[in-house]
Automatic annotation (TrEMBL):
Key word tRNA processing present: no
Keywords on record: NAD
Name this protein carries in UniProt: SDR family NAD(P)-dependent oxidoreductase
Domain NAD-dependent epimerase/dehydratase: 9-257
Length: 332
């Protein structure tokens, strides 16, 4: 039974990596969750369905297989599920490199889908907060490290990043015009159990266990602010429950990272340690759209959200490997 303080929360992208973990945490805390996902085939649909299976074991979870860019379907769902007081918008077409191959889904899902969400929230009575996911990729070729929310972000180097920067600008216009609470979160390289098979941790693990060679871009001269999924969920929920204000001129934006960047080679070494095997490496040039280095300044999130990442790269990768060994079916 839900508590008197429980809320009804819409989580878009609920069958996705981050959306699944956010929805699960909310359900465990006693809230009602409405999940939306179109279950597209960008990666294993079975993986998405198996995430959903876990969510559907909760009494207060309702799932809709919908495209967030379909404004009529989304409006009908919202009418059926009133009153939704909070939204965590995570539905998006992900992947920097895939945006160079097929750009159209990025505009459809990330731009049109976000437009639909902004419009739906605008018209809801007693609506409390929209939290949406942006990305560290918006910093593009910014030479100043670590990245701060106040840094210029007008030079994205991939279409994926451009669509996420568009989200931030769209959110700002709605925040200014309609004065309802909106918060954006720039997420830094999220990893962990139930993650996406197209990401390096999955691909490296599969290849190393199979004795195959892994591709190491920019000859290993890259670094990332790898952030474990439980830390990201902590930050998202801290933002969601923060008393939202519409008084300031700009809607809040926060970096959610680990605050400890690691080189790609350190990342690979931690994976080798967890697997007990060495990787055969194929060193390659930097790929188009890739950022050489990301590093998050999370001071703002620490002060205003109480955000404090706890999981280091060795613990996080070890926990992923433990999960992976019983879930290799998703990479066949």
């Amino acid at each position: 039974m839900t508590s008197a303080l429980s809320k009804k929360i819409l989580v878009t992208g609920a069958a996705g990596f981050i959306g699944f973990h956010v929805a699960k945490r909310l359900l465990e805390e006693g809230h009602t969750v409405v999940g939306v996902d179109n279950l597209n085939s960008y990666y294993s649909v079975q993986l998405k369905k198996d995430r959903l299976k876990q969510l559907e074991s909760f009494e207060f979870f309702q799932f809709y297989c919908l495209d967030v860019a379909d404004h009529q379907a989304m409006e009908k769902m919202w009418q059926q599920e009133k009153p939704i007081t909070h939204v965590v918008h995570l539905a998006a077409q992900a992947g920097v490199r895939y945006s160079l191959i097929d750009p159209y889904p990025y505009v459809h899902s990330n731009v049109t889908g976000f437009m639909v969400m902004l419009e739906q929230c605008r018209y809801q009575e007693n609506f409390e907060h929209l939290v949406y996911a942006s990305t560290s990729s918006v910093y593009g070729l910014n030479p100043s490290l670590p990245f701060k929310e106040s840094d210029p972000v007008e030079h994205p180097i991939s279409l994926y990043a451009a669509t996420k920067r568009a989200n931030e600008l769209m959110a700002q216009s709605y925040y200014h015009l309609y004065r309802y609470p909106i918060t954006g979160l720039r997420l830094f390289t999220v990893y962990g159990p139930w993650g996406r098979p197209d990401m390096s941790l999955f691909k490296f693990t599969k290849a190393i266990l199979a004795g195959e060679t892994i591709d190491v871009y920019n000859h290993g001269q890259m670094s990332r602010d790898y952030t474990y999924i439980s830390d990201i969920v902590d930050g998202i929920l801290a933002a969601l429950w923060r008393p939202a204000s519409v008084e300031p001129r700009e809607h809040p934006l926060y970096n959610l990272g680990n605050d400890q960047k690691q080189s790609l080679m350190t990342f690979i070494e931690a994976l080798e340690e967890a697997l007990g095997r060495k990787a055969n490496k194929n060193f390659l040039p930097l790929q188009p759209g890739d950022i050489v280095e990301t590093s998050s300044d999370i001071q703002k999130a620490k002060v205003e959200l109480g955000y404090c990442p706890k999981v280091d790269i060795h613990q996080g990768i070890a926990e992923f490997v433990e999960w992976y060994k019983t879930h290799t079916i998703y990479l066949k």
